[in-house]
């Protein structure tokens, strides 16, 4: 009985919440809330499946926090959504229709007096009195209203003054026009047939252009703000067909792949070599060496990056000080594209090799020791042991992890942002693009910094990045499955 009462109360609360959401103008959110809430009530009140009672929170979380953002991002990639096209067409029209000025010939000066009385003086000298919080009816002013309150008192009652709408005897409604005046509103725009807007002053009609996302006049002049419209595959075509955009984009894409691949390669070579060296039985103090070599992975990455940013400083960095003392050179690490990319690889390899070293250390423990004993009896060299025994036995289980490391570096935004911020930039590009940008940092610049907040184009690039990373994940899963099957 108690369970039915709780279910009924929860259902009524859900219906009220859905209704309130719909009345607030969020129809899609109301439908989503109804579906999620209704399914939750069914699972926990009516369904007899015990498994779904445990699975339901995870499934809903995946839909809300993974599937929905992904689908929303993909959808934005097919629009012109940007800082100039944030609103829907209806909201952009309503915003413009709300714009107004004041008739300069009909301004009424006002003063505020004790008792919240507002005295208005018209252009012809006629004086009227209204009361703050009243219905706006005006009465002829008495000869003396007493001293006017100070400007500080006027400012403190500004909200009440803005809410006051005095009505003149002829029915004209006045509106607050500033700290000293009320006036007659004159709308800048009027609604015209077909959803168009007509300029009040000139009569020019601006029709909605649903291809460009602007209200456009006969001479091609557009109004701000624009509105969001669907543009199909235009953002994707821009990536492929616009030569001014394609050049930097292709370069950044190639550099992203090279950056990820070379980082994994260098980190693997160094990490594997150190892991093999630390397994040498004759080496004393292996635990100390292993601890010291693991420290770059233990220190928070952003701290190491900022330290390296200081070390590579052209004028005051320790690295250039050493190079100047030894070879008489001070490389411009942050100004030269090649040097900047080299610096990124050095820092990222430093941050990544301990992870590979730990992985290889664990994998080396699984290699049978009798193989090395047989190799020693045959007189094999250390290189033969590594190339014929160690590497073949650990490379297969290591491959899926290397793919995941590649995918991580493919989206290594923190390193690029903190160390170079994508610079030095390419010259003469439509959108700011850096020679050290990778796709994710390039997308961030397009969406949020100095590229006009082009969210639609950024969403299209994000969709491309997601496809690539998803493909890497599928390859990793297949290799993991193949490895476990063997």
Automatic annotation (TrEMBL):
Keywords: Cell inner membrane, Cell membrane, Membrane, Sugar transport, Transmembrane, Transmembrane helix, Transport. Residues 253-476 form the ABC transmembrane type-1 domain. One of its GO terms (biological process) is maltodextrin transmembrane transport. InterPro entries: MalF_N (IPR035277), MalF_P2 (IPR029345), MalF_P2_sf (IPR047103), MetI-like (IPR000515), MetI-like_sf (IPR035906). GO terms for cellular component: maltose transport complex. The chain crosses the membrane at residues 30-47, 54-74, 252-275, 287-308, 343-364, 398-419, 455-477. It is a multi-pass membrane protein. It comes from the Bacteria. It is found in: Cell inner membrane; Cell membrane. GO terms for molecular function: ABC-type maltose transporter activity. Part of the ABC transporter complex MalEFGK involved in maltose/maltodextrin import. Probably responsible for the translocation of the substrate across the membrane. Belongs to the binding-protein-dependent transport system permease family. MalFG subfamily. The complex is composed of two ATP-binding proteins (MalK), two transmembrane proteins (MalG and MalF) and a solute-binding protein (MalE). This is Maltose/maltodextrin transport system permease protein. It comes from Rubrivivax albus. The gene is malF.
């Amino acid at each position: 009985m108690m369970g039915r009462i709780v279910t009924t109360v929860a259902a009524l609360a859900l219906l009220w919440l859905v209704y309130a959401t719909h009345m607030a103008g969020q129809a899609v959110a109301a439908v989503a809330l109804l579906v999620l809430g209704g399914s939750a009530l069914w699972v926990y009140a009516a369904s007899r499946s015990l498994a779904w009672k445990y699975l339901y929170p995870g499934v809903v979380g995946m839909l809300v926090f993974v599937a929905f953002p992904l689908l929303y991002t993909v959808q934005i990639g097919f629009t012109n959504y940007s800082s100039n096209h944030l609103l829907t067409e209806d909201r952009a029209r309503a915003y413009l229709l709300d714009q107004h000025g004041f008739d300069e010939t009909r301004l009424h000066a006002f003063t505020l007096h004790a008792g919240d009385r507002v005295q208005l003086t018209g252009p012809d000298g006629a004086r009227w009195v209204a009361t703050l919080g009243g219905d706006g009816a005006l009465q002829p002013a008495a000869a003396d209203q007493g001293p006017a309150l100070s400007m500080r008192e006027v400012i403190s009652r500004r909200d009440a003054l803005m809410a006051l709408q005095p009505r003149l005897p002829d029915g004209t409604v006045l509106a607050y026009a500033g700290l000293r005046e009320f006036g007659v509103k004159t709308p800048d725009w009027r609604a015209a047939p077909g959803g168009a807007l007509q300029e009040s002053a000139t009569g020019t009609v601006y029709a909605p252009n649903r291809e460009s996302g602007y209200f456009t006049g006969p001479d091609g002049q557009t109004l701000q703000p624009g509105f969001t419209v669907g543009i199909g595959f235009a953002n994707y075509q821009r990536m492929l067909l616009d030569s001014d955009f394609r050049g930097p984009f292709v370069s950044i894409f190639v550099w992203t792949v090279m950056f990820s691949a070379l980082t994994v390669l260098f980190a693997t070579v160094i990490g594997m070599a150190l892991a093999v060296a630390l397994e040498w039985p004759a080496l004393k103090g292996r635990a100390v060496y292993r601890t010291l070599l693991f420290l770059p992975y233990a220190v928070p990455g952003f701290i190491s990056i900022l330290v390296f940013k200081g070390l590579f400083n052209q004028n005051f960095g320790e690295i250039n000080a050493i190079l100047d003392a030894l070879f008489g050179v001070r490389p411009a690490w942050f100004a030269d594209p090649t040097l900047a990319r080299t610096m990124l690889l050095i820092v990222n390899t430093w941050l990544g090799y301990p992870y590979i070293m730990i992985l290889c250390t664990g994998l080396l423990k699984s290699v049978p020791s009798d193989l090395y004993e047989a190799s020693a009896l045959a007189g094999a060299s250390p290189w033969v042991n590594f190339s014929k025994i160690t590497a073949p036995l650990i490379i297969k289980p290591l491959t899926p992890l290397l793919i995941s490391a590649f995918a991580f570096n493919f989206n290594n935004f923190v390193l690029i942002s903190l160390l170079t911020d994508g610079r030095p930039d390419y010259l003469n590009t439509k959108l700011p693009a850096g020679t050290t940008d990778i796709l994710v940092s390039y997308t961030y610049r397009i969406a949020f910094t100095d590229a006009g907040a082009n969210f639609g184009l950024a969403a299209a690039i994000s969709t491309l990045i997601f496809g690539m990373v998803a493909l890497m994940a599928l390859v990793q899963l297949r290799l993991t499955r193949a490895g476990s099957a063997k």
